[in-house]
TrEMBL record:
Transmembrane segments: none annotated. InterPro entries: Kelch-typ_b-propeller. Keywords: Kelch repeat, Repeat. This is Kelch domain-containing protein 2. It holds the Pfam family Kelch_KLHDC2_KLHL20_DRC7. It comes from the Eukaryota. The keyword Repeat applies.
Length: 237
């Protein structure tokens, strides 16, 4: 049933191929690429549940796809526009929107067992705001999350959170930077120096060596698209 819903056949080929989708997550696991979730043309509750119950795995050497069932505490069915990063052959997913609410939860997919688990930070109140279209990278034994568009955590908004004037539903843009230490299970919001990127969403965040990462592009609160480049030294902030 899952293959019928999630795959399509091209021409006379019998090779498995995932359905077209947007706003999914992906990451490198070993020598392969793992894709999970997102939004397809069919966004019914049944389709969303089935999309969240599998991962699609692409081998760039054989150029073949395969599908695997996953278990455990996966991101909410239908979650789109989450951030993802891979570390030690595991895939991490943060945030996203399932059509009903924004999230600021962090999930880990163990590539040995194909089982999801939700991380349990020691200081959940220090997590980033619930948001979409943020970006995440792995840095040493931490995950770093930057920017995004979402909703305040509670009565006290982060100082870096910019309340939008173009929406009426309480959503906004941010340039907050958070780190999650995987060994300690703790979120932190390190102070940075230098010229900080403006609040933005839909940007890319790419590690270029063992210290530095590059933020490029994105969309600001004004809806203007950017082609600015910002470099952060994560060892000195």
């Amino acid at each position: 049933m899952a293959a019928t819903l999630l795959a399509r056949l091209t021409g006379s080929s019998t090779k498995y191929e995932p359905l077209p989708r947007i706003f999914h997550i992906s990451g490198r696991v070993g020598s392969k690429v793992v894709v999970q979730g997102g939004r397809t043309k069919d966004f019914s509750d049944k389709s969303r549940q089935q999309l969240s119950s599998v991962v699609e795995i692409f081998d760039p050497y054989s150029e073949l796809w395969e599908q695997r069932q996953v278990e455990g505490d996966a991101p909410s069915p239908g979650t789109c526009a989450a951030a993802s990063a891979s570390l030690c052959d595991d895939l991490y997913s943060f945030g996203g929107f399932d059509g009903r609410q924004h999230f600021n939860t962090l999930h880990r997919l163990d590539s040995k067992t194909w089982c999801w688990s939700q991380m349990s930070p020691q200081n959940a109140d220090g997590a980033p705001m619930p948001k979409t279209f943020c970006a995440m990278i792995a840095f040493r034994n931490s995950l770093v999350v930057f920017g995004g568009h979402g909703v305040p955590r509670g009565p006290t908004e982060p100082q870096s959170f910019i309340q939008t004037t173009t929406f009426t539903d309480g959503e906004g843009w941010t340039n907050e930077l958070h780190m999650y230490n995987l060994s300690e299970g703790v979120w932190s919001c390190p102070a940075t120096t230098g010229e900080r990127p403006p609040p933005c969403a839909g940007h890319t965040f790419t590690a270029v060596d063992d210290r530095r990462a590059v933020v490029f592009g994105g969309k600001m609160e004004s809806r203007a698209k950017m082609n600015d480049v910002y470099i952060i030294d994560l060892s000195t902030m």
